[in-house]
Amino acid sequence: MVDRQLDSQAGATIVDLDGTYCRLNTLKAYIRLGFRRLLSRGKIASATTVAALVAMRRLRLISHRTMKFNALRLIGRDTELLNSFGTYIKESVNTDVRRFLDRRLAAGDRILLASAAADFYIPAIWNGEFVATAMDENAERLECRGVEKLRRVSLWLETNGLKLNYVLTDHHDDAPLMQANVTGENILVNPSDETLRFFRELEPTHFLLIEELAYNVVTR
């Protein structure tokens, strides 16, 4: 039986960024563009340090968080770089996901982008509500992923009086959010074989593939 009180609530769709809303890894793209900009401005020492951080991460000598926070601090966030970054990323938006979000908006859902990406560059590529990794006033360097993403999404849903209709993601990092989505649908977008295996073995969870919905009218 459907809970009528729950069913009368306004709904929400939660969408991941990297590999879901857009096909690229936004951190890699920002670092690549930022590295080139440092070189073009003659900041050789900073560019060299960024390259070293990326190399050390590839060799697993430092953590992803260490590389991410330190590289982004060195690169900075000037307007010209953010504009060029935004233009570049918008060309990689997944059209199936964008169509789906447009339909959910038309159906009355509020859309929340929930990402581990750096918060300062989200407005360059997304015109809407979001939760992301805080790059300032974040001494613990806590990323918006996994359980922390679930916490922040849950707080947003509760604050706004919304029920969760859909979660869209490409990665098993979002397993806590998908498992918590007991009343709605989980949609995987171009998942890797590893991610598919993970979710097929995970209980309790359920999911559809974006291809199963992309060209169908979805109502809830």
Supply the key terms.
45% helix; globular; alpha/beta; disordered N terminus; single chain; six-stranded parallel β-sheet
Describe this structure in words.
The protein has 220 residues and is α/β, with parallel strands linked by helices. The protein is 45% helix and 15% strand. It has nine helices and six strands; from the N terminus they run H-E-H-H-H-H-H-E-E-H-E-H-E-H-E. The chain has a six-stranded parallel beta sheet with strand order 3-2-1-4-5-6, with helices on both faces. Helix 2 packs antiparallel against helix 3 (44-58), helix 2 (26-40) packs parallel to helix 4 and helix 2 (26-40) packs across helix 5 (79-90). The two termini are 15 Å apart.
